[in-house]
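Standup, Tuesday
Yesterday: got the pipeline producing structure tokens again.
Today: sanity-check two examples.
Blockers: none.

Example 1:
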Amino acid sequence: MSIARHQRRVDRLFLRFSAMYGHVWRSIYKTDEFLDYSKKAWLDGLMGFEDKSLEHALQLCLQKCPFPPSLPHFIECCKAYHKPDVFFQSKEEPQKTDPAVAHMHLEKIKAMLNIKPQ
């Protein structure tokens, strides 16, 4: 994705925050110089995220954040989009167990718990 497209993405994001948070968001950026500097920081911070992540993070902010997020907080919201997909991924197929070994360990557990074998 080109830098110009990333810049347009950040511009749209700032407009959305302005619509969502109104004066609270706009009052953060008192000068154009600070607004431009902040947009550059957000551009750099969000470069590795897809549009879907940003949209998810925006919805999360809309639902849970009464105040505008900082860049680090918004990045965490973007990362939350991927967490359900990668909560646990096994790197290898589970191996089949020998029923005799499983039975032996089950009997040991029963003995530890004072459960009589069936």
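Example 2:
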Amino acid sequence: MGRVAVFLCHCGTNIAGVIDIQRVAEEIRKISGVAIVQDSRFLCSTDGIESMVDSIRSSGVDRVVVAACSFRTHEPLFQNALRRAGLNPYLLELVNVRELCSWVHEKEREKAT
């Protein structure tokens, strides 16, 4: 089984203002094979990407999941981060929690989480 890193983006308050990021992180940590769960205020920022690359390099993970916003705009950025960390960029799974969870359930935090 692979070693998976999961990165959760707050997207400022776009995601974290609705979704309970810490609760999601706690649940993800219970999943077999998950080696890292890390959250970032803005994962797409320079600091966010650098932290992601460093974590991937230092942990020996071989798969990455990013829960953030639209893959249509951010997939190349995160794929490049995997390349920089020495991973195949296609071992990345993006989950659009901004549009598909936090925006849909904006007034229902429990459902969004």
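Quick observation on example 2: The chain is about 40% helix and 20% strand. The CA atoms of residues 77 and 91 lie 14 Å apart.
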